From TrEMBL:
Residues 1-16 form the signal peptide. InterPro entries: AB_hydrolase_fold (IPR029058), Cutinase/axe (IPR000675). It comes from the Eukaryota. This is Carbohydrate esterase family 5 protein. The keyword Cell wall biogenesis/degradation does not apply. Keywords: Disulfide bond, Hydrolase, Signal.
Length: 183
């Protein structure tokens, strides 16, 4: 009887041990687009869906993924949601760059833009930014409506680089910019 109890206890313990499976990453010869929606937009690409779609249509063998994070403006949770988005973005970039040699494109709006810029450059009380070795896999970045934007930076490009924290107009110019940097 004690032996049967031992076997049942051992079997129950073995069943409770988690099994970790490696996540398989599919690589693309075009670009891997990560889109981050703005505050309070429904899950998916949000306002930048047309930019993501344009890039995917213009560069063969490309795929996109919408960044999965809350994207809410609830106070005081906004910073927590941005931090969660940063961590998710960094994980996606590191996973893809570790497995694939293709280019990564980042497209974002509003809170998603805040996530992307803080993931790349850091921010007050934010996680450590993406390392340069992983960032080197990123061929193009477009951010719209990042409320933390400061004009005059060396990397500014586009139609509105002179106004802090404003939402510039986007459209085919963004798609053309990404294509020029990624093909």
């Amino acid at each position: 009887m004690q032996f049967l109890l031992f076997i049942l206890t051992f079997a129950a313990a073995a069943a409770a041990v988690p099994v970790y499976l490696a996540i398989r990453t599919t690589c693309y010869s075009g670009v891997y687009v990560i889109g981050a929606r703005g505050s309070e937009e429904a899950a998916g690409y949000g306002s930048v869906a047309s930019v993501v779609s344009g890039v995917l249509a213009a560069i063969p063998n490309s795929r996109g993924i919408a960044l999965d994070y809350p994207a809410s403006v609830l106070d005081p949770l906004y910073d927590d949601f941005v931090t969660g988005g940063i961590n998710t973005l960094i994980s996606l970039v590191e996973s893809y760059a570790s497995s694939c040699s293709g280019n990564i494109v980042l497209v974002s709006f509003s809170q998603g833009a805040n996530v992307i810029t803080d993931a790349l450059a850091g921010g007050v009380l934010k996680p450590t930014p993406l390392s340069a070795s992983y960032a080197s896999h990123i061929s193009a970045i477009t951010v719209y409506g990042d409320l933390t934007f400061t004009h005059g930076q060396s990397f500014d490009a586009g139609t509105d680089t002179g106004t802090d924290g404003e939402v510039p107009t986007w459209g085919t110019d963004a798609v053309d910019f990404i294509i020029s940097k990624s093909t």
